[in-house]
Amino acid sequence: MHQSDEVSENLRKLFERSSESQEALEKLRRIASQEGLTEPELNMVLDIVFDYSLRNSFRSSLISECLVPNGEYLVSTDVICRILGAIGVSEVYFKDGKQFKSKRLPPNTQNLLLEWLICGSHLFGRALFVELHRLLPLLFGLLSFEYSRSNITTLIIIGLSQQRKAKDILTGQGLSSLKPWHVKTTLDFAVRFPFDSHIKALLAYMRRLHPTLELRGGPDIRSLELAKSIVISYPNHDIVSRLSKCLSSSSEVAWETREVKEKVQRLFDLFSTPTLKKRKVAVESINDLDLLSSSSEIDSISIGSVESLRTLVDEFDKISMANPGSLFNFTNMTNERLRKYFLIFHLALGHNDSHVIKKLIQASQFHALDSSTSTHAFDQIRSLALMGNFDQITELMSKAIRTHKLDLMRSIMLFEVLPPNKQLFEEVLQALEADNNTEYLQIFLQVASNVVIKWHTLHSEYGFFEEVRPIIFHISERLNRIMEVRWRLLTLKTKIEFLCFYRSLRKVNLSEIAEGDEPSWLIPGPTLMYQMVISMHPFVISEAFGLIAFLRSLKLKEGGKVLHLRHAYIMDSINLTWLDQAFKIEEGSHNKGMFLDSEYARKLAGLNFFTYSDLMELKSIGSLSHSPGFSYLVAEILWSLEDEAEDITIRHPGPLSANSVAQLQQTPDAQWLKKSYSEIKVSILNKLDTLGYSGLCDLLFSSLRPLAYLRERGKVQSKGRSRSQSREPV
Fold first, then answer.
1. Lowest mean pLDDT among 120-134, 490-504, 646-660
2. Does residue 309 sit in the same domain as residue 337?
3. Does residue 541 belong to any structural domain of this protein?
4. What average pLDDT does this structure show over 150-163?
5. Suppose 66 and one of 30, 32, 574, 608 were both cysteines; which one would form an S-S bond, judging by CB atoms 3.0 to 4.6 Å apart?
6. Per the structure, how many domains does the chain have?
7. Which GO terms describe its biological process (predicted)?
8. What is residue 318's predicted lDDT score, i.e. its pLDDT?
9. Quick check: 370 and 404 in contact, CB under 8 A?
10. Any bridge partners for residue 98, and if so which?
11. What angle do CA 662, 666, 671 make, to 5 degrees?
């Protein structure tokens, strides 16, 4: 018989109170102790436990001896809700003129379920803390039942122990797990039950979370001697022993349950005598948990016991951290944020000779800044560096890049936290040129964009930007070279990141830098630029045009190579997109035809698919209506213009051109848009502007005299400009 079937059969016998009930219970005990229950089997046992008709003696045995998972899964937090929902006393109510009494499990059974919940708290994994915090309103309400108060208090303390990651929207401060109404409710109970040690323990723990907490109106919590009265602990060590068998596996579930069990045990240790001895308290008894982390009687406070930023600041000189490397080796520590702040304070104070900094540097070298270390460890050392420019950390990072201890991806990720260093960038750029991994290039472009803005903001404000400029120029020049070679093979995401990098350069004030100079580092070569201009994606085309428009705004050295190249980009792009003169070559002008050989361009125009129909000609192949990137967008905009017109009787059949517009408007008995070809193109361009293709519109509206005052976006500003400021094609 399958184990699940056997469990089900034995539960049936138990429920029916047959002569085999005792034997069935023994079999269930054996299965639970030897193999443990699967999740469906555990739920079956719980269903029987919550059935009011089951004999109480059987129910107690099932809870204390048979509710043992096999350790291969995390118990659902629904079980927590189910148990807490069963706590309470029977209530009398009336229905249809009759008196009824609600059914409840006996108080001793309720307490046994709560004991199982506390002893098996690790079985729920990390979700335990989240769920108990969510259920705090219910738990505080259950404090009114004296018979279950000890266990409910323990669950409340576990629920309050987890630090919350959410932040206040207005202040940006971390949200405390302890709320004012928690304190008020507990104080109300303390007034009603002044001698209840569990209420006092809860108040003492609240004082520990917030040392400045005012407890006026409540009892004197110093009357509780924790050294003699252990009120917060595991309530049933037999159940703890049985459920600890679930920790024997090496699975991921077992690691999580073991971690939670250790957290809960550390929490209980705060209330036990051994904890006081470890902390070298110079008095026989301590009457308030708050005193454990303050006052002059304490020689040293472990960082593991610090639970608030205020305590960290007030007791900073007394706090010790035996193993700074724990930040890199362990995940989800209870006070990880405070451990980081402790290390950051030491770094900021420049205590390089302190044992904490020495241990941190050693741990960083061997446990964080190496290709073989975990991602968690690397992220932790990077997060420390993000909180401040600490020489002790950045020197280690720079050395790790120079000595190639880090892989390329991690080296790239460190540039956001490192000070400007041309040599380090050169190391990574050389590796990028040698490596064909597109993902590395994409990440580098993201980091480079952020770094350029950060350097400009920080260094220009403090007058150091002159030192940073050569590094930015070098990065830009090298990236242009890499992108020119690899453009055809790159993903769209990487191409967009490259254009975003140029956007970040445009945010830096380069007008003075480029004036009278030859900034070859700033302008992509023809091979790269024209690949962007004839892209299949409209956003790439628009951003390329935006880059050209930006270059147009710079004052460059007269007669220089960069100036001539810029003129060629402007004319070739306008010819391609707007004037239906793609690849136009004209001696003695800036019409370079994208630097194609004139004979090649002539033969290209004579290919069959260009001579077969006048719908497709080489000269109009890059226009907005024919471009693979924009053709469908333009068609949709044209349809919307037709929809807005009330009296049309015909629709435009294909790509827009001067001939197609003239044909429709000259067709007898046909009504179409009463706009010229040029007016329709301007309407389409303005619509593209509203859709976000601003780079395309920046170049066309600013470079063509007929369009100078036709841009609808920002029209008010345009009207204020004098006509002398309008621009013509160069």
1. 646-660
2. no
3. no
4. 88
5. 32
6. 3
7. CENP-A containing chromatin assembly; mitotic sister chromatid segregation
8. 85
9. no
10. 95
11. 105
Any residues with CB less than 8 A from the CB of 568 and at least 6 apart, and which? 526, 590, 592, 595
The answer to whether residue 548 sits within a structural domain is no
Tell the residue number behind the tokens 């009207």, with chain if given. Answer: 719
Q: State the CB neighbour count (10 A cutoff) for residue 50.
A: 16
- CB of 347 within 8 A of CB of 396? no
How far is C-alpha 431 from the geometric centre of its chain's CA atoms? 28
| Burial class of 282 by CB neighbour count within 10 A (0 to 12, 13 to 18, 19+) | exposed
pLDDT at 652 over 60: yes
Q: Phi, psi (5° rounding) for residue 167?
A: -125, 150
Q: Cα 484 to the chain's mean position, in Å?
A: 33
C-alpha distances (whole Å) from 490 to each of 494, 495, 526 are 6, 7, 18
Interatomic CA distance for residues 628 and 612, integer angstroms = 19
The DSSP symbol for 270 reads T
- d(CA 120, CA 112) in angstroms, rounded, equals 12
Where residue 636 falls among pLDDT bands split at 50, 70, 90? very high
In a domain, 38, yes or no: no
CA–CA distance, 217 with 230 (Å, rounded to integer): 25
Please check whether residues 348 and 210 belong to one and the same domain: no
Tell me: the pLDDT tens digits for 526-571?
Answer: 999 999 999 999 999 999 999 999 888 887 777 778 888 889 999 9
- Rounded Cα distance, 24 and 55, in Å: 14
In the chain, the amino acid numbered 170 is: L
Range of the domain at 674: 631-725
Both 110 and 237 in one domain: the answer is: yes
**Residue 148 falls within a domain, yes or no?**
yes
> What per-residue confidence (pLDDT) applies to 724?
39
- What is the three-class DSSP state of 639? helix
Which of 316, 341, 362 is the C-terminal boundary of a domain? 316
CA distance 650 to 381: 67
User: Per-residue pLDDT for 112 more than 90?
Assistant: yes
Please compute the mean of the pLDDT values over residues 229-235 and round it to a whole number.
Answer: 73
Comparing CA positions, the residue from 199, 198, 230, 226 lying closest to residue 215 is 199
CB 80 within 8 A of CB 155: no
- Mean pLDDT (the chain, rounded): 80
Amino acid found at 654: G
- 247 and 273 inside one domain: yes
Cα radius of gyration (the chain): 37
